[in-house]
Write a structure and sequence with these properties.
Helix content is 32%, strand content 21%. It has a single domain, classed as Thiolase/Chalcone synthase (Peroxisomal Thiolase, Chain A, domain 1, 3-Layer(aba) Sandwich), CATH 3.40.47.10. The chain is built from twelve helices and 13 strands.
Length: 388
């Protein structure tokens, strides 16, 4: 059974439209990184991405970012509602922060010793995003939110594929959203994983992540509904169960997800034309991922991370990077690259063919995108053309 991702779309520091995103990718540039204060204790500042999408008082910002994606794809949504009954259209959301910023604001007046904290399910529930989309679009099918940290959106795609294969629905609206939050930014800072400068994935002197807002969207079906659809050729997932935040150093859990994706797709490692790495820019993730990719692909397949362009969009990165991969495939543009001298990464990663200069291209029809998360939640997706 073929599963298609119709009209992949995302907003990130690369842009708020397909054209903006494609132009930024062509220039290996970004638009919305800025030095922001107020998210860290004291007067600390960090490179972060706050998108120029307005949200009103009391609105859940993650829902606002998802609404932007829905508005940009309104015609496709109308088409699936015309084709399929409301009961046969599912909504699956991937997020890490959900409505946490609104929770922070909502609870501020109650931060006092001995004072009970209120419980408002419309604000606090992790299912906020999927419930919002289901209600907004007047749907009646399954709707739920997946929160597996940074693999959430990729897991939403995998879950959507399972629903379609089980014939529990005819279409799955997969969405993702993560916005800036003092809790998440402060948490990464406490772990020593937040960079105070622009991140450098796979660089010998890398020192952490930049967090960026981002939201993604696609409609998954068993038939092609848009001219820019891509095919989900394979997918795999695994769990390290190694540590609450650190990945297994040998990368065996990540390797299991990648090999599962290859097996499901019927492809060999050499069939992959480009790997969009998770590449957070932390010492531990990049070391693990680099070793893992070297074992499977060697120096044959070009790879790079796009988090120096988007920031780490946390639970949304799976769909943000799906959109990036679809543009690379369809527009045949050069690969996102890291402008490093070889001595800046090859000593640690001699087995990687890192895209380190302009002009490198995808060398096949298939692209792999990897997302690895806290708790060892690993996901790997392989995208291919709608028609081979």
């Amino acid at each position: 059974m073929n599963i298609y991702l119709n009209q992949p779309f995302a907003i990130s520091s690369l842009g708020l439209s397909r054209q903006e995103t494609a132009d930024s990718l062509k220039g290996n540039s970004q638009k919305y990184f800025s030095r922001l204060e107020g998210y860290l204790p004291g007067s600390g500042a960090s490179d972060l991405v706050y998108l120029p999408v307005e949200s009103g008082d009391g609105e859940c910002r993650n829902n606002v970012l998802v609404d932007y994606c829905i508005s940009a794809n309104s015609e496709l949504i109308l088409e699936i509602k015309r084709r399929y009954s409301a009961e046969r259209i599912a909504v699956i959301a991937g997020t890490s922060t959900s409505s946490i910023t609104e929770v922070e604001n909502h609870l501020k007046p109650f931060y006092a010793p001995g004072k009970p904290l209120p419980y408002d399910p419309d604000i606090i529930e992790i299912s906020n995003i999927s419930s919002h989309v289901k209600t907004k679009l007047e749907l009646a099918g399954p709707a739920y939110t997946i929160a597996t940290a940074c693999s959430s959106a990729a897991r939403a795609v995998i879950s959507g594929a399972a629903l379609l294969k089980a014939d529990l629905c005819d279409a799955v609206i997969a969405v993702s959203s993560d916005s800036l939050s003092k809790i998440s930014i402060g948490g990464f800072n406490a772990l020593g994983a937040l960079s105070s400068e622009h991140c450098r994935p796979f660089h010998r002197d890398r020192n952490g992540i930049n967090i960026g807002e981002g939201a993604g969207f696609t409609v998954m079906t068993k038939e092609q509904l848009s001219s820019d659809c891509i095919r989900l050729a394979g997918y795999g997932s695994s769990s390290d169960a190694y540590h609450i935040s650190s990945p297994s150093p040998d990368g065996r859990g990540a390797e299991a997800a990648i090999r599962m994706a290859l097996e499901k797709s019927g492809l060999k490692p050499e069939d992959i034309g480009y790997i969009n790495a998770h590449g957070t820019g932390t010492k531990l993730n990049d070391s693990m991922e680099g070793a893992c990719m070297s074992r499977i692909f060697g120096r044959e397949i070009p790879c790079s991370s796009t988090k120096h362009l988007t920031g780490h969009t946390l639970g949304s990165c799976g769909l943000v990077e799906c959109f990036i991969c679809s543009i690379i495939m369809q527009d045949r543009i050069q690969l996102p690259y890291h402008p490093y001298a070889k001595e800046e990464y090859q000593e640690e990663f001699p087995g990687l063919r890192l895209a380190d200069h302009a002009g490198m291209e995808c060398e096949g029809k298939y692209i792999m995108s990897n997302n690895f998360a806290f708790g060892g939640n690993n996901a790997s997706l392989i995208f291919g053309p709608a028609v081979d």
